[in-house]
Design brief:
It comes from Treponema parvum. By secondary structure, the protein is α+β, with helices and mostly antiparallel strands. The protein is built from 16 helices and 18 strands. Strands 1, 2, 6, 7, 8, 11, 12, 13, 14, 15 and 16 form an 11-stranded mixed beta sheet that branches. The protein has a 3-stranded antiparallel beta sheet with strand order 5-4-17, with no helix packed on it. The protein has a two-stranded antiparallel ribbon with strand order 3-18. A hairpin with a 5-residue loop joins strand 9 and strand 10. The longest helix is centred in the middle third of the chain and has 22 residues. The chain binds zinc ion. Zinc ion binds next to helix 1.
C-alpha cells in the first residue's frame, strides 16, 4: 500500500477591471476608492425601472484583451442575468455572459526561462504534456496554458466588516466593468499559477485594458485545484477546491501549495474522492497561512440564467475586431525576443527594459537615435531607472527625452567625455533639461584625445616624478596606477584614459 506519485491540477479564473471612463452599464464614474456610496445611481443599485446601457469602450476593451490572449472573438453575443442573493449585489442578480462569451479558445505561453531549472526541458521534473496527456510545449521554449473563455460581467459592491460591530456595504464598486478569464486546467504547480497571473497582468497592462493593480483589486484570481494521485498503480482524483479572491502572486502560490498538501493528507486519511459537480469553495487566510471552507456546493446550483431582457443581443463588427487586433501591437515576450536580437541585450536587460510598454518604447526610441544601443541600455538600466525609483516616477513623468540619453551614450562611446564626466553630464541633464552636447560645451568637458597633448602631459608627469619611475624600474609595477592618476589630474580629467594609459605604459617600458 502507498501513494506512488501525485500531480497538481490547477485552473484559474482571473477577474480584471477594465479602464472604461464609466461603469459597465451606467454613467457613474469608473474609479477606485472615494467616500462609500458616492458613485452610485439607480442602474448600478438595480432600482426598479432603471435601464442599463452598455458603456462606451466596454466591449472594445474586452475584445482587445481577447486578441492579446489569442482568443477567437464572437461575431454575435449577448448579456445574461445570473441570479443569486448576496448583500453586495443589490439587485439580486449580476449581469454577465453565460453561454456566448465574447472571447474563447485562446492561450498564454509561459517562457521556460521563468520556470525552476528542474521543470525546464531536460530537467528532472519536466512535463511535456498537460494532465490529459496533450502536448503543451511550444517550440521547446514555452509551456502553453489554454484560455477557455473570456466573458464580460459587472463587479459587485464591497462588504466592510467592523469587528464585533456591524457590516456595511460600499456600492461604489458595484457595476465596475470586468472581464473574467477562465483557463483550462493546464497549470501544474503553484509557481506556474503565480507565473500565469503575472504574465496575464503584464500583457493586459501592455495593451492598456486594465491598471492591473492588485492592491486595489483590479485583478483577482480564483484558483480551482485538485490532485491526481496514483496509489498501487491506480489513479484517483481528489475533490476540486475553488480558492476565492487571491489578490497577490504570493497568495496564489502559497494558497495552492497549502491546498495541495491538505488534499493529499485528506485523501490519505479520509479517502475523499472527486465527484462530478461537487466543489469546496474556500478562502485563503493570509495571516494564518491556511485555506478554510466557505461552503461546499454542487456547481450545478441553479443560478436561473436568463438573457438580460434590458440589453439587446448584439453583433460584433469586423472593424471592432480589427481595431482590437491593431490595439494589441507587439506583446512583451515578442518585444524581448526582438530586443535581444536587434540590440544584443542579455535576458535580464531585455526583461527589465520591456517591463512596461512605455519604458520599452522609450528605450527603443533612444537606441534608434544612438550609435550604441548597448550603452543606451546601460545608461537607462544603471542610471535612469535608479533616479526614477528614487523619485517614485514612471518614464512618462520625466522631462528628458530619449534623444538626451542617445546623445550622452554617443558622447561616451566616442570617448568625447570620460565616464566620470558622463555621470556629471547625466546629473546636469536631469537638472537643467539641456541636451548633453550643450552641457559638454558649456562645462568645457570635451575630452582631450589629441595624441600630442596627451603625450606632453605623460612626459611632464614622468619627469616630475623620478622616485616613482625608479620604483617602477625596481619592479614595483603598481606605481603605474598612481602615475596614471597624476596624468588624469594634470589633464583635469579630460584626457582619454585609454589613450593616456597606453602611452604611459609604452613610455615606461622603454625607459
Ligand atoms: Zn451607476
Amino acid at each position: 500500500m502507498g501513494i506512488d506519485k501525485y500531480e497538481i491540477v490547477i485552473g484559474c479564473e482571473i477577474h480584471t477591471q477594465l479602464l472604461t471612463a464609466t461603469k459597465a452599464f451606467c454613467a457613474c464614474e469608473n474609479r477606485y476608492g472615494g467616500m462609500p456610496d458616492t458613485r452610485v445611481c439607480p442602474v448600478c443599485l438595480g432600482l426598479p425601472g432603471a435601464m442599463p446601457r452598455v458603456s462606451k469602450g466596454y466591449v472594445e476593451l474586452g475584445a482587445v484583451a481577447g486578441q492579446a490572449l489569442n482568443c477567437r472573438i464572437a461575431r454575435f453575443t449577448k448579456f445574461d442575468r445570473k441570479h443569486y442573493f448576496y448583500p453586495d449585489l443589490a439587485k439580486g442578480y449580476q449581469i454577465t455572459q453565460y453561454d456566448i462569451p465574447l472571447c474563447s479558445d485562446g492561450y498564454v505561453d509561459l517562457p521556460f526561462t521563468h520556470f525552476p531549472e528542474e521543470e525546464r526541458p531536460g530537467g528532472k521534473k519536466f512535463r511535456p504534456d498537460n494532465f490529459k496527456g496533450e502536448n503543451c510545449v511550444i517550440g521547446g521554449s514555452y509551456r502553453r496554458v489554454r484560455v477557455e473563455r473570456i466573458h464580460l460581467e459587472e463587479d459587485v459592491g464591497k462588504s466592510l466588516h467592523f469587528e464585533g460591530k456591524h457590516s456595511y456595504i460600499d456600492y461604489n464598486r458595484c457595476g465596475t466593468p470586468l472581464i473574467e478569464i477562465v483557463t483550462k486546467p493546464d497549470i501544474s504547480s503553484p509557481d506556474e499559477a503565480s507565473l500565469f497571473m503575472q504574465t496575464v497582468q503584464e500583457i493586459l497592462r501592455y495593451v492598456r485594458v486594465t491598471k492591473g493593480n492588485l492592491e486595489e483589486g483590479n485583478m483577482r484570481c480564483d484558483a480551482n485545484i485538485n490532485l491526481n494521485v496514483w496509489e498501487n498503480g491506480k489513479l484517483y482524483h481528489t475533490p476540486i477546491s475553488e480558492i476565492k479572491n487571491l489578490n497577490s502572486f504570493r497568495s496564489i502560490r502559497e494558497a495552492c501549495s497549502y491546498e495541495a498538501e491538505r488534499q493529499l493528507h485528506e485523501f490519505e486519511t479520509d479517502r475523499k474522492e472527486f465527484e462530478p459537480g461537487y466543489k469546496n469553495t474556500m478562502t485563503w487566510d493570509e495571516e494564518k497561512g491556511v485555506t478554510a471552507v466557505m461552503r461546499t456546493k454542487n456547481s450545478f446550483v441553479d443560478y436561473r440564467f436568463v438573457v438580460e431582457p434590458d440589453i439587446k443581443p448584439f453583433s460584433v463588427s469586423e472593424s471592432l475586431i480589427e481595431d482590437a487586433r491593431k490595439a494589441v501591437g507587439e506583446l512583451p515576450e515578442a518585444k524581448r525576443t526582438r530586443f535581444k536580437k536587434e540590440f544584443a541585450l542579455s535576458d535580464f536587460d531585455a526583461e527589465t527594459l520591456t517591463s512596461t510598454r512605455e519604458l520599452a518604447m522609450w528605450f527603443e526610441e533612444a537606441a534608434k537615435n544612438s550609435k550604441s544601443a548597448k550603452r543606451v541600455a546601460n545608461l537607462i538600466l544603471s542610471e535612469l531607472l535608479a533616479v526614477l525609483n528614487e523619485k517614485n516616477q514612471t518614464i512618462d513623468e520625466i522631462k528628458i527625452t530619449p534623444l538626451h540619453i542617445a546623445e550622452l551614450a554617443d558622447a561616451l562611446e566616442s570617448n568625447k567625455i570620460t565616464s566620470k564626466q558622463g555621470k556629471e553630464v547625466f546629473a546636469l541633464m536631469l537638472e537643467k533639461n539641456l541636451l548633453p552636447s550643450v552641457i559638454i560645451k558649456e562645462e568645457g568637458f570635451e575630452q582631450v584625445s589629441d595624441a600630442n597633448a596627451i603625450e606632453k602631459i605623460v612626459d611632464d608627469v614622468i619627469s616630475a616624478n623620478p622616485k616613482a619611475v625608479s620604483d617602477f624600474k625596481g619592479g614595483k609595477t603598481n606605481v603605474v596606477g598612481w602615475l596614471m592618476g597624476q596624468v588624469m589630474k594634470q589633464s583635469r580629467g579630460k584626457a582619454d584614459p585609454n589613450q593616456a594609459s597606453a602611452l604611459l605604459n609604452k613610455k615606461l617600458s622603454v625607459l
